[in-house]
Design a protein that fits this description.
It is built from three helices and four strands. The chain is of the alpha+beta class. It starts with a strand and ends with a helix.
Length: about 80
Amino acid sequence: MKQIKVLGSGCSRCINTAALINEVVAELGVAAQVSKETDVEVIMGYGVMRTPAVVIDEQVVHSGSIPTKAQITAWLSQ
């Protein structure tokens, strides 16, 4: 099961990113747990300076914008 974290302050872009990831996970039928992380110290621990950011299995795969469905699909297909 993939562990996916959306890092951010809880702003609308972060919420939309988590919702989009959940949508793609459901469409693809991928076994994944999606969580949101809002603790600034934890976010900084990943070296992320711009949110929203996406971490899959402890690897930062995206930061600074809402990813596209195509990007999320590619990450989940690996």
